[in-house]
């Protein structure tokens, strides 16, 4: 008889804004249009807020604990810019004007996480949704997009699981955002 698999000692984790089905489908259609076969799978589309990297189980438990009482307002994002980072060969959609509430949310998250031992990245936060990786750049990059409106509904703690077909991002916990603020 097989027993359930034990929980891993560590997971590769990140916090993200996870799109609702309508937004995910619109992002997936955009990714297909601009990247074709290289497009990010629809189930993996998200906007990373905090990247934890490989996280021991005890640290993950601490993060979950401090995030349990999280209260955040809903955010209205408009993804209206297509961009390209040559170094990482990443094609992405981003807001040309990130809302101030997004920076406020990030600061609130870090205020909870840093006392648990999290060390923030030492680079500016550049909100984006990765549409494709390892794709060759073409003339369609770094251009305006028809605006794609996204009202955020939840913040997700996700795990990146590597496999033969590439990485899969699996939601492990979620906290709703308050759409009434």
TrEMBL record:
EC number from the UniProt entry: 3.1.4.58
Any GO molecular function: RNA 2',3'-cyclic 3'-phosphodiesterase activity
Database matches in Pfam families: 2_5_RNA_ligase2
Superkingdom of the source species: Bacteria
Keyword Transmembrane helix: no
Residues spanned by motif HXTX 2: 128-131
Keywords: Hydrolase, Ligase
Family annotation (InterPro entries): Cyclic_Pdiesterase, RNA_CPDase
Keyword GTP-binding: no
Signal peptide as annotated in the record: none
Residues annotated as the enzyme's active site: 46 (proton donor), 128 (proton acceptor)
Residue ranges of the motif HXTX 1: 46-49
SUPFAM superfamilies, per database record: LigT-like
Catalytic activity: a 3'-end 2',3'-cyclophospho-ribonucleotide-RNA + H2O = a 3'-end 2'-phospho-ribonucleotide-RNA + H(+)
Function: Hydrolyzes RNA 2',3'-cyclic phosphodiester to an RNA 2'-phosphomonoester.
Cross-referenced PANTHER family: RNA 2',3'-CYCLIC PHOSPHODIESTERASE
HAMAP family: RNA_CPDase
Family from the record: Belongs to the 2H phosphoesterase superfamily. ThpR family.
Name of the protein described by the UniProt record: RNA 2',3'-cyclic phosphodiesterase
Organism of origin: Plasticicumulans lactativorans
């Amino acid at each position: 008889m097989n027993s359930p698999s034990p929980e891993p000692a560590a997971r590769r984790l990140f916090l993200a804004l996870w799109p609702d089905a309508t937004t995910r489908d619109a992002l997936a259609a955009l990714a297909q249009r601009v990247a074709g076969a290289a497009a990010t799978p629809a189930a993996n589309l998200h906007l990373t807020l905090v990247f934890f990297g490989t996280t021991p189980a005890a640290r993950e438990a601490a993060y979950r604990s401090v995030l349990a009482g999280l209260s955040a307002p809903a955010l209205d994002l408009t993804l209206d810019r297509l961009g390209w980072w040559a170094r990482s060969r990443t094609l992405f959609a981003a807001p040309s004007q990130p809302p101030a509430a997004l920076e406020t949310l990030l600061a609130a998250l870090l205020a909870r996480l840093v006392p648990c031992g999290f060390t923030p990245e030492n680079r500016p936060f550049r909100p984006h949704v990765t549409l494709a990786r390892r794709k060759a750049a073409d003339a369609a990059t770094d251009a305006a997009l028809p605006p794609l409106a996204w009202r955020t509904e939840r913040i997700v703690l996700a795990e990146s699981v590597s496999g033969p077909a590439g990485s899969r991002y699996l939601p492990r916990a979620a906290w709703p955002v308050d759409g009434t603020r």
